[in-house]
Design a protein that fits this description.
single chain, alpha+beta, five-stranded antiparallel beta sheet, two-stranded antiparallel ribbon
Length: about 240
């Protein structure tokens, strides 16, 4: 109301503030909108962390339904995308029932972390590699209720292949040693026998179990023991 008694309407326009991402109006500054914006920023941050993890992450509910996976799991199991809403054993193993040794079921039953090495399967259920699978209980912080399982998965295919190659090589190596006619033995740095083949056992005249752990000096005279020591020491030094 003016001094002369007349009335005039006053119109307000929203003030826009430049923020670098978008323009904020006065309405954006209410406590409710601030809270919503904080929640959105937190969700974006958690999603970024989730997507940045290079190992696989899979979140299951208590019925083994897939609730969420990270991009790594989507890449490994691209043939099963979309995964959300499906049973984990359908997605990861193309099976109609849970796995016999399922760490996630153990976690759901006990509330404790579990582990299992599981096969990594392709689109035809063929084994394409191996995975270390750790399952952790998903607990509601406010109620303490078990809401599901978090599966942390690491691809160990290359490591397992290297271990198998090493075992095959060692088996072949031992087969050769046991079939050659010459004596063969290995010693540690103290000169104790750690490996002997059958021919070496025949040369010394003792069974393998009596030779292993024996120092080579006890198997020869002092002169020869000194010569052998000098040879061993030359190898060690050079």
């Amino acid at each position: 109301t003016c001094k002369d008694g007349t009335r005039k309407a006053i119109h307000f326009r929203p003030v826009q503030l430049e923020t670098g991402e978008h323009l904020l109006t006065c309405e954006d500054m209410t406590p409710r909108n601030k809270a919503e914006q904080a929640i959105q920023e937190r969700e974006r941050f958690l999603s970024s962390v989730f997507a940045s993890i290079q190992d696989g992450i899979s979140i299951l509910d208590t019925d083994l339904n897939v609730m969420r996976v990270n991009p790594t799991m989507e890449r490994w199991y691209s043939h099963a995308v979309p995964m959300t809403g499906k049973k984990c054993y359908e997605v990861y193993h193309l099976s109609s029932k849970p796995c016999d040794a399922c760490p996630s079921i153990r976690t759901l039953n006990t509330g404790q972390t579990a582990y299992e090495m599981v096969p990594k399967r392709g689109p035809s259920a063929e084994i394409t590699g191996w995975l270390d699978l750790y399952s952790f209980p998903l607990i509601d912080e406010s109620t303490g209720e078990l809401k599901g399982v978090i599966e942390y998965v690491r691809d160990i295919s290359e490591r397992k292949a290297a271990e198998e190659a090493l075992r095959d090589s060692e088996k072949k190596y031992r087969t050769i040693l046991e079939t050659i006619a010459d004596g063969y033995h290995e010693v540690d740095l103290a000169g104790n026998l750690t490996l002997v083949n059958d021919s070496m056992c025949e040369i010394f005249g003792y069974p393998r179990e009596e030779l292993l752990g024996v120092n080579y000096r006890k198997l020869m005279d002092e002169h020869n023991a000194k010569s052998v020591f000098e040879a061993y020491n030359e190898v060690y030094r050079t």
